[in-house]
Design goal:
The chain has 231 residues and is of the alpha/beta class. The chain has helices spanning 13-25, 36-45, 62-69, 86-94, 107-125, 157-168, 176-183, 192-206, and strands at 5-9, 29-33, 50-54, 77-81, 99-102, 131-134, 137-140, 145-148, 151-152, 174-175, 216-219, 223-226. 41% of the residues lie in helices and 21% in strands. The structure holds calcium ion. Calcium ion is lined by residues 11-12, 54, 56. The site of calcium ion has 4 residues, from loops.
């Protein structure tokens, strides 16, 4: 099996080095770019399996780079964000990034996020299956059937659309804006309270402990993600 190829786009040498060493220890091949201009060249020529992009690059807005990269690469994009760049992080997710890490982060967090994105990319390329499973829940996207611990669960059409949106974006952080657009349509982007209500309903119906969700995960001030899909 060939090595997984990771491109790091980051101007800070210490962070670049930290990430490179951590990922090389995992047996991955790592390429570096210090500017957006270099990243454009290397992401096209090296064809990485995953790209890690810092949100503060010296030569260009990282969001423009990510949006453009989406036109020639389907590799997952993990953004690195500083704590005071909350809004920028959400914007990056909205233009096509898949997940983020907030600086400072440790090795385990980095590896977990990278592996999760690579797994997701694999799952997506394996082709869509109509049946997915997480925890005790089994969802058939073709027949709208939801079963939890052997018993049929009734979801309203809106709850089912929300669950479907989370399944399609499995492993990604999906922003409030993306979910509102997907589930309710244009014109609802200023109504995140809709999401809170419907997420509470979904957790009541699908999680073992709705107060400690293990699959329908909140990303504070950003959005939601579905975790722990087994098929
Ligand atoms: Ca930077």
């Amino acid at each position: 099996m060939s090595k997984l190829r990771i491109l790091i786009v980051e101007d800070e040498v210490d962070i670049r080095r930290f990430i490179r060493l951590s990922l090389e220890k995992e047996g991955m091949s790592v390429f570096e770019a210090t500017t957006a201009a270099q990243a454009r060249i290397k992401s096209a020529s090296r064809q990485p399996d995953l790209v890690i992009v810092d949100l503060g690059l010296p030569d260009e807005d990282s969001k423009v780079l990510i949006r453009d990269m989406r036109s020639w690469s389907s590799a997952p994009v993990l953004v690195l964000s500083a704590q005071d760049r909350e809004e920028e992080k959400v914007d990056a997710l909205n233009v096509g990034a898949d997940d983020y890490l907030t600086k400072p982060f440790g090795v385990p967090e980095l590896i977990t996020r990278v592996r999760a994105q690579l797994r997701r990319a694999n799952l997506v390329s394996a082709g869509p299956s109509s049946v997915v499973q997480f925890g005790q829940v089994r969802v058939d996207l073709a027949t709208y059937e939801v079963i939890r611990a052997g018993e049929a669960v009734h979801l309203t059409p809106t709850e089912f659309r929300l669950l479907t949106a989370l399944i399609r974006g499995y492993g990604k952080v999906i922003t409030y804006r993306q979910l509102l657009l997907d589930v309710w349509g244009p014109g609802y982007s200023d109504r995140p309270h809709y999401l809170r209500v419907y997420m509470t309903n979904l957790r009541q119906k699908l999680e073992d402990d709705p107060t400690q969700p293990r699959h329908l995960i909140t990303e504070l001030q950003v959005g939601y993600r579905l975790a722990g899909l087994t098929t």
